[in-house]
Design goal:
By secondary structure, the chain is mainly beta. The protein has a domain of 33 residues. The protein has a three-stranded antiparallel β-sheet, with no helix packed on it. The radius of gyration is 12 Å and the shape is globular.
Length: 59
């Protein structure tokens, strides 16, 4: 799995994560996640919270 932060995040500048790794988003952080293989991703946090999906024209 790869994660890039910011509106201009790309796969080239994304950080790689493996099994057992984790990261923490700060409030309002814009980020993009790529999972190129079959993955189980757990999302946890103190609520209330919401996800706002942004269309990416570079796809």
């Amino acid at each position: 799995m790869s994660v890039a932060f910011g509106m201009d995040g790309t796969r080239e500048n994304a950080k790689q994560f493996g099994p057992g790794d984790y990261y923490v988003n700060s409030r309002g952080a814009i980020h993009t996640v790529w999972a190129d293989t079959l993955s189980i991703i757990q999302i946890a946090g103190l609520g209330p919270w919401e996800a706002k999906f942004v269309e990416n024209p570079r796809q």
